[in-house]
Specification:
single chain; alpha/beta; Rossmann fold; two-stranded parallel sheet
Length: 322
């Protein structure tokens, strides 16, 4: 079986390629612009046909204009669908828990969020979530027996966003515990996400299916335990101090107002969402993927954190995005 992977240099795509090759599968990494139909034709024609497509290429950074998000996230998915139809290849699409709406996904208090839970409105300036929802709807309406994987916040080696920020904060030796610290963060290790994707690629479905992949293997760590595990692995003696959640929210709201004052087109909603993420419980259930694809996450969180820190090695970590 030959599998074409888009976004093969990214966080999820690179881990999927590693796991597929370890499993003995033939992998072809997409080269070129995913909105270029000629690049898709070249990718599928070179070296024979393909059996499956994993489409992960997407824009994430919030500072880009909406048109660029739509061009890549929606336009690229449209060509992935056309290519799957033209080649007869199975399609697995990398979606996101953000399609539920940030209010429904991060810090939700209304019970478990399953694949059939109703979606909530998405903020106008949340270009990533808006276009990921549109892209998933294209896959759903394509008529293909495709799979969409909805992950929450992903961490691990080669992560340019969440993981380096956690490491940078922990390395300072001072960490504010926001709220009680007893909640469970809504995040999942990239190796577990990749494992579920491989299961979806090798186990065909008969109709469009969505799967949440939102937990590591047990035991689940609390917010406090999660941060302390990073500190232990990094060899940092961490000084913790309590930070009331309401003060953190006030700070986030002030930051949002300041950012929108500086740039009216900027999306500042992630500041408040970050506070909800830190203080909220992981609301998602991923029972469906475990039942239907016979998948269980192979990595517990402590093992995942050790792998994540080792993956960054001695290159140093900054708190900025890349």
């Amino acid at each position: 079986m030959t599998i074409l992977v888009t976004g093969g240099r990214g966080l999820v795509g690179s881990h999927v390629i590693e796991q597929l090759r370890t499993a003995g599968e033939s992998v072809r990494s997409f080269e070129g612009d995913v909105t270029d139909a000629a690049a898709w034709r070249s990718a599928t024609a070179t070296g024979g046909g393909i059996s499956a497509i994993f489409h992960a290429a997407a824009k994430v950074a919030q500072h880009l204009p909406y048109a660029e998000f739509e061009r890549i996230n929606v336009g690229g998915t449209r060509l992935a669908i056309e290519t799957a139809k033209g080649t007869g290849a199975r399609l697995v699409h990398m979606s996101s828990a953000s399609v539920y709406g940030r209010a429904a996904g991060i810090g939700a208090g209304s019970g478990p969020v399953a694949e059939n839970s109703p979606v909530q409105p998405i903020a106008e300036h949340d270009f990533y979530a808006r276009t990921k929802r549109l892209a998933e709807e294209l896959v759903r309406d394509s008529g293909l027996p495709a799979v969409a994987i909805r992950a929450n916040v992903i961490y691990g080696e080669r992560d340019p966003l969440f993981t380096p920020r956690v490491i940078a904060v922990v390395k300072r030796g001072i960490f504010p515990v926001i709220g009680s610290g007893q909640n469970h963060l809504s995040c999942v290790y990239v190796g577990n996400v990749a494992s579920a994707i491989v299961a979806a690629l090798v186990r065909p479905v008969s109709r469009f299916r969505v799967y949440n992949v939102t937990h590591d293997a047990p035991p689940a760590l609390t917010q406090r335990e999660f941060i302390m595990t990073f500190a232990e692995v990094l060899g940092v003696r961490l000084f913790k101090f309590p930070a009331p959640a309401f003060l953190a929210r006030l700070g986030a709201e002030a930051w949002a107002r300041w950012r929108r004052f500086r740039d009216p087109s900027a999306y500042a909603g992630l500041g408040a969402a970050a506070v909800s993420f830190i203080t909220g419980e992981n609301p998602y259930t991923d029972a469906r993927v475990q039942e239907e694809l016979k998948w269980t996450p192979p990595f517990d969180t402590r093992t995942a954190i050790r792998r994540a820190v080792a993956g960054f090695g001695s290159r140093g970590v900054t708190s900025g995005r890349s």
